[in-house]
């Protein structure tokens, strides 16, 4: 009789009805029930499909992405630092911009050049509605604007989204793409983009457009992407809109095992990945920063990342991050919390690429003060070891402003750390592993397209 009542109760519960089980022992909730409760608690919901982009706009954006004509010295394209072979990143701790040679992890600095101060993040899923872009958040705004950028009132008013606003700026950055005064391009001609002052945003953008519109094939592509807009009304904001459209259409990758789990497929994750997810959203406290549909991207934190590189802004040779952008010491050493979709593919990690593996990142978070004080420079490329700022005063300044959520060790066992890493690997969309089909055979300028 007891078995019959229990069976009836289970059937009623499955239908959402109640049943008096006061006389029976409480049954433990399944791992899926626990995990789904945590997902709801942290606002983790499925990412819906994004609207399809105009094919003509995407075609223009693809050409621009891979064309070195955008760089002052005609020696580097957007795709050099966001390569298909490196999952729309470059595999380097710190990016190497104009003047460099080689590709990916083997790329080296050119004579007299410096590293870009920060890691080149993957462009995958960059168009998913994030409010802040760049590691320091110097570009911000809702998808339809208004946008806050270093250009202030010089920013054209008709940009369609924040990703297009971001695409305006690599071409004005000297280390990334524009070059230095006196540079000559790959043909030995003076670099006319480098002659402008760093605050002459409008002049630089007009000069880039003069290059593009001098090429008949680009005139045709712009005409198809922006019918009815005469050539004399085209500005670099139109090029940036096309770059953003290409990124959104081609680099949005949201069919990972975790996405399938969010869409109610319990079998999409392994038991180990589910254990790791429960830790991620529970005792490991990862979700206090990495929450919402994108698992991060909406706030800033000082995560204790070792200071590495040439530095930038008021803090150089250190990097004050968001604190420098808003001139606020409270946010010194704070950087944008990364959105974690496809994070397995985006090593090395943190704003300066200090850690080469997910395992190293999880160890860092398990005891941040210990990790900062015991940072192992041997995991860095030899060219970067001399740019590690391991002085006690620097370490002390970083730890003094460490995010309060990271001050106490987590105490995760080795097995628990492996479980968290297994969960992070479940965020990978298999189609993001090979992006080589995105690379065109040629570009309108006729400059060589790098072979990945």
Written overview of the protein:
- The protein is an all-alpha fold and 452 residues long.
- The longest helix is centred in the middle third of the chain and has 16 residues, at 236-251.
- It has 17 helices and five strands.
- A three-stranded antiparallel β-sheet has the order 1-2-3.
Rg, Cα atoms, Å: 24 Å
Query: Based on DSSP secondary structure assignment, what is the total number of beta strands?
Result: 5
Spell the H/E element sequence. Answer: HHHHEEEHHHHHHHEHEHHHHH
Question: Could you give the distance between the termini?
Answer: 69 Å
Largest sheet: 3 strands, antiparallel
* Tally of contiguous helical segments: 17
State the helical fraction. 25-40%
Structural class by SSE content: mainly alpha
Beta-strand residue percentage: under 5%
Keywords:
two-stranded antiparallel ribbon; globular; mainly alpha; 33% helix; three-stranded antiparallel beta sheet; 452 residues; 2% strand
Describe the protein's topology.
Blueprint: H1 2-14, H2 31-41, H3 55-66, H4 78-81, E1 132-133, E2 139-141, E3 147-148, H5 162-167, H6 174-178, H7 201-213, H8 216-225, H9 236-251, H10 257-262, H11 271-280, E4 300-301, H12 322-325, E5 335-336, H13 358-366, H14 368-373, H15 382-385, H16 392-400, H17 414-425
Antiparallel strand pairs: 1-2, 2-3, 4-5
Helix pairs in contact: 2-11, 3-8, 3-9, 11-17, 13-17
What's this, in brief?
The chain has 452 residues and is an all-alpha fold.
